[in-house]
Specification:
- With 396 residues, the protein is mostly beta strands.
- Helix content is 7%, strand content 53%.
- It has four helices and 19 strands.
- It has helices at 2-13, 26-31, 93-96, 187-190; strands at 34-48, 56-68, 75-86, 109-121, 124-131, 150-157, 163-173, 184-185, 195-202, 208-217, 230-242, 247-259, 265-276, 279-289, 315-327, 330-341, 350-362, 365-376, 385-395.
- It has an 18-stranded antiparallel barrel.
- A hairpin with an 8-residue loop joins strand 18 and strand 19 (385-395).
- It is globular, with a radius of gyration of 22 Å.
């Protein structure tokens, strides 16, 4: 079935005709839509400094092929094929299973990633179906071949000047970077009735940007009966532009969770950054108190190198970043972070150094090379590791 869907998408390519923003008939809307292909070739190699721990290695090709109809009576329909496929027989399925480029058994990823209906009238938008989300606590984490995708419904309104309000509901998703290869039910974490959220952004005050999100589990119980761990997720940040140098800013953030049985978590953070000539710099710090700070699926903390993308242990972390734009088409970002877990926690206790090279080849392709080294402390439960990524992007 999936291969026929891909053939269907490619067949549309030969009948696409660029039209006005709104189609005159439903037939025109179907045939005069937009076909896009965001493709990648991705090499990933993670080596662990621990005996009997297999390295995670894979070379895959794939990406997203998406068709979105033209608007008809303010309605659009979209379908997108998501795929990540092993290239050659260079690495085993066992080696590929730990890369998140393939599924848990090292098999190819292939699924209908997006399938939604969007209604947009004036300053209100409603979107229902399989879709990518982009909020501080619920995002797509586009870190491998594919992003995370959600079965959700959202309503977004921009009637207030410089303010956006979004209400959403989600029930299932494809897991971290879609490695589950299907939409899974996380009722044991989100509750049997899913999650609802409010997301607000505001730029009413000059030079000041504020983001706020609240996510609530609609039931405290899973389908099996036991109580879930978290009742809610809270987050707010503010960024203020300074008249200092070419481009400077300060940011602060606060977050937390309501635990059913444990003490509620509290997360605070601060960041300061500036730019001069072709160099961007920033320093940042975070502190988590009481219990782990959890996002639904995102990397909200300024010290975002910590293990995982939804559960940050109590402790302190700090770091800095330098991004040098060598040429208009070439940049190198260097980032360092140190995390120190509180007593009784042994995961987020490490230092990490990252190098990220980006080269823009032309209007539709670019190359990225990323290397990182993570050194765990003697009290950490994790092993030291080094990691390399080579990625070639093609966006059509």
């Amino acid at each position: 079935m999936k291969k026929y869907f891909v053939i269907f998408l490619f067949s549309i390519l030969f009948s696409v005709i660029h039209a006005d923003e709104h189609a005159q008939t439903f037939g025109d809307a179907l045939t005069q839509g937009d076909l896009s292909a965001k493709m990648r070739v991705f090499y990933f190699n993670r080596a662990f400094d621990e005996p009997d721990t297999p390295n995670a290695i894979a070379l895959t090709g794939g990406g997203i092929i998406k068709y979105e109809t033209q608007s008809y009576e303010d309605v659009k329909i979209a379908l997108a094929y998501y795929g990540s496929h092993r290239i050659g027989g260079f690495y085993t399925r066992e080696e590929g299973s730990g890369t998140s480029l393939l599924d848990r058994e090292g098999e190819d990823l292939s699924l209908l990633g997006e399938a939604y209906v969007e209604y947009k009238r004036s300053k209100t938008m409603v979107k229902i179906g399989r879709q990518r989300l982009a909020t501080p606590l619920i995002g797509d984490l586009d870190l491998r071949m594919l992003p995370s995708v959600y079965e959700a419904g959202i309503i977004r309104n921009n009637y207030l000047e410089n303010t956006m309000i979004e209400l959403g509901y989600l029930y299932r998703y494809t897991g971290f970077v879609s490695k589950e290869n299907e939409f899974i039910d996380l009722n044991e974490l989100w509750g049997k009735d899913g999650l609802a959220y409010l997301y607000v952004t505001d730029q009413s005050v000059p030079d000041l940007s504020i983001r706020l999100q609240y996510v609530k589990a609609l039931s405290d119980y899973s389908d099996q009966g036991p109580e879930i761990i978290l009742r809610d997720y809270r987050y707010i940040d503010a960024s203020y532009d300074l008249e200092l140098g070419e481009k400077s800013h300060i940011k602060v953030q606060y977050g937390g969770n309501d635990y059913v049985q444990e003490d509620d978590s509290v997360m605070i953070g601060a960041m300061a950054g500036t730019s001069f000539s072709r160099v961007d710099t920033a320093i940042f710090v975070n502190r988590v108190y009481n219990s782990p700070f959890s996002e639904v699926q995102e990397s909200a903390m300024f010290c975002e190198g910590q293990q995982g993308y939804w559960n940050k242990e109590p402790g302190k972390s700090y770091g800095g970043m330098i991004d040098v734009h060598i040429f208009d088409t070439l940049s190198l970002k260097t980032r360092y972070m140190n995390a120190m877990a509180d007593d009784g926690y042994y995961l987020d206790d490490f230092s990490e150094l990252q190098f990220d090279l980006n080269y823009t080849i032309n209007d539709y392709s670019r190359f990225r090379a990323r290397f990182s080294s993570k050194d765990q402390t003697s009290r950490s439960s994790e092993a030291d590791r080094t990691e390399g990524r080579l990625i070639y992007y093609i966006d059509l």
